[in-house]
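QA checklist item 7 of 12: single-chain prediction sanity check.
[x] sequence parsed
[x] length recorded as 192
[x] structure emitted
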Amino acid sequence: MDPGAEITQWLVRWREGDEAALDRLTRLVYAELHRVATGLLRSERAGHTLQPTALVHELYTHLLSGYGAGAVDWQCRGQFFFVAGRLMRQVLVDYARKRSARKRGGGKPAQFEEEALNAPAPDTLEVDVALKRLAREHPRQALVVELRFFGGLTAEETVEAIRASGEEVSLRTVERDWRFSRAWLQNELGAA
């Protein structure tokens, strides 16, 4: 069976209330979620204390609390990875906000951090603000970024996920949106 079709099958069974289906689904997608988490954390600042395994576990906590069995009309693998990517992004943004609050004195006293000596990666909060701005101005292009970057989907899988939401889109359009969005974000983040 095609892995994407198998994932979809287990998503549907989970949606229909088969709690054991989540266990099978987890075994099918865990390695790929870990790969996506590793990629997301690679683009974070040096010395980030959140590890890929912890990010995936946080994802599951959020997934189970807000996206339980019948909460989402699961349609396909791409939709699942879109939701997973969006939740991982939210975990990283929440983590960055908490860290920023501590540095401003909102928690423990700020301490000198060795990673501050390293060249800064784009700030997670700045990226989040830029993505929200992109979503206001260019919603489909922002969706492509979420699916490709945060969801770890290929261009073809991105097409499938967007079509599952009811919007008709071609592979060529997704590829063009991806190029546009990367340039737009680079310009926005370079100006920040």
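[x] summary fact logged: The chain is about 70% helix and 0% strand.
[ ] second reviewer sign-off
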